[in-house]
Amino acid sequence: MEIIFVLVIASLLIALFFLSLFIWAVKSGQYEDDYSPSVRILFDQQENKKKKSNTKSKISNEARDVLL
Amino acid sequence: MSKTCYHCGSPSQTWVQHDGKDFCCDGCVMVYDILKEKEMGTYYDINKAPGIRKKAVSAEYYDYLDQEDIKKSVLDFYDGSVARVKLYIPSIHCSSCIWLIENLQQLHSGVINSSVNFNRREASITFNEEEIKLSELMALLSSINYKPHIKTEEQKKAVKKSRKLIVKLGVAGFVFGNVMLLSFPDYLSEDVALHPELIGLFKWISWFLSIPVMVYSGNEYFITAWKNLRKKLISIDLPIAIGILAIFLRSTYEIVTSTGPGYLDSLTGLVFFLLIGKWYQAKTYEALSFDNDFSSYFPLGITRIKDNEESIVPINQLESGDKISVRNGEIIPADATLLSLGASIDYSFITGESVPVRKNKGDLIYAGGRVIGNALFLKVEKKVETGYLAELWKEKTDKESKESMLSVTLDAVSKYFTIAILLIATLTGLYWLWTDPSKAVLAFTSVLIIACPCALALSVPFAFGHTSRIMGKNNFYLKLTAVIEGLTKTNTIVFDKTGTLTDPDAFEVEYYGKELDHFNSSLIKSLAHQSRHPLSKALFQHLKDAGEFEVLDFKESEGAGVEAVIMTHKVRLGSASYTGNKKEGMHEAAKVYISVDGNQLGYFVIHNFYRPNWKEMLASVQESSDVHVLSGDNDAEREVLEQELKNKSNLHFFQSPKDKQKYVADLKKQGKYVMMLGDGMNDVAALKEANVGIAVADDVYQFSPSSDAIINASELVRLLKFIRFARSAKKIVYLAISISFLYNVIGMYYAVAGQLSPLFAAVLMPLSSASVVVFTSLSVMLVAKKRQLV
Q: Between β-strands B301-306 and B149-150, what pairing exists: parallel, antiparallel or unpaired?
């Protein structure tokens, strides 16, 4: 019998935990834009590649300066 | 296959070959070059031709943003070097745009980070203020044709409001689910009854859980109902508030006295469904701004000259007597007198008159004019808030009260509904008091509970919500769903001419006189290219096939014409007297005469270019409504328009913004329900005065005057279709209201008899709501399909 009391309270606490997660998600703005994140995730790789190649060329320029 | 521009995808007559690709104009080539130089070609890989074509090249100055006061008010965060700003960029329209703006740091190393909110067309940019100033950042975005705007307070507030509603909805949903689980034992038959202690515990948990629903999620119903009551108004919120309160008090009583399980599951479910309706209704067009006031059109700052020193001050700090300098392309922010010798002011913004006005030293210049040519010095006469423009804006009528209303019909219905319910509840209570006093309170509250008009409250948000969503897909955006009702009542339509019936950026050019050979055409084109006058621009566009020569000794005589020496010929374009021509007939304002070395060649007549299918559109709306056309422009187009109007006396020219407003007000006085369509600042007063004010825009995401609705100019043809669709939507609402009444009558039967069980309430209420939602959604979709709007 008592176990049901415990279970009910426990389930409520878990539910409350998820509710607070939801509220946090809303407050942090996650429900505001449902389009760009889905596109953004596809961009990152290309961007990183470019950055790398940029830094590489910078380094080689510096290296050239040192060498010269 | 027809060619399209590599950058912006628009078709074109003339092509610029560059880098092995075709472009429609130099503007597009320029942006392409900027991106190519920074190795940002990915922009073109994500989407085909993602760019934006620059429409009009108007100089934009952002210097005022570097002024400390202004900077502080605009930036969200600033610590001396790192700054963050949120900018509204209406031209964001595809994934390429997101990519480009989020990679701004590749264009300028001063940008640290930038992220886009697509729904709101907003970019949040963090940058190093020491490397790139805010003004430079704005200019950078403009240079790649993503013209940024500073966010208004209104836009900032809307964000907070929508977040709060989602949290409220979440809380109500959470409580609803849990209370329903806890009430589950009550739904079962009495044979499987639980331990009484457990039942007691479940009830009390439910009760505590429903408190946040009462005081947080559902509080708005109480607040609005109370506010309206004090204004002696009865809205749909009142019966809802009474119902919710009755359920809660009754349930509390039952739980405290252990006489029954209460109706808390119905209560929380009710609030949850109601909030879904609210949320659905609030999900309109975040990215569109319907409430631009005149200040949205002005720069935030202006150059003031004090003691021979120039400084940029926020425009609200301008005092009368201040000396200001306004540059080419800038808008004069306050009524002022001209200190410079002469000036040419483009008032198209205010009056719709497309030809610039000549002003002399000492003339009073009203706020809102755009400076053409050299920078001007002016003395401010009136503060910005008391000027001509602000006065126009203040002519604000009874619309504020309209804003709070969901729907006029629903409010009328709910008034009688509330009175009827209170009457039935009282009569029932009295009846039972006489026959069986123990049941009196029970029956009284039962009526209030079952009558809680949840389904009724959902009918309008869903029916009109769907309708406005479908209209939005067809580029007709409504500010409030109540506008749909306005559409159905319209019996008089007033059109503005310039920019509404005509395309403000296009002209039709006719030539009369000696035939022009290629050489002469080229002379004219070369000269026209030098001038900023709209007629010159029209000529330049018209003569696009001609060549261009070098122009020497260019002179512009304000209000008369232009001259220059081209290929040793002295060429003049302008008025008849300026070029030594004889005047030819009427309507001189739209004519450009030509003389080469003193010989008169002929003249061009420049007509407004009407939007495609405008005749069909006018004809179609004239079937069911009275059509009027107002124009701030001269009457050069009188004959063209007269042919299309049923009643020729409904055509008026030379209308000032005030005249237009008065015209609409007079129509309203005659008992007409007036719809006004206009595009510019000159129509704002009339748009506000009208029962339904619709702003016509070539690009709905650019600023358009404050209005009840915004329509994309290309959709104007379908105006009648939209009106008819609105009429169907209204019929659907009536049907939905009838359905919800039907449920109420059934429930009422049990309630009056004092036999309303919690289970019955818990089933009937969601069922009625759900069926109304399903009915309205399906039928609106069906009607839209039939009208080919989806």
A: unpaired
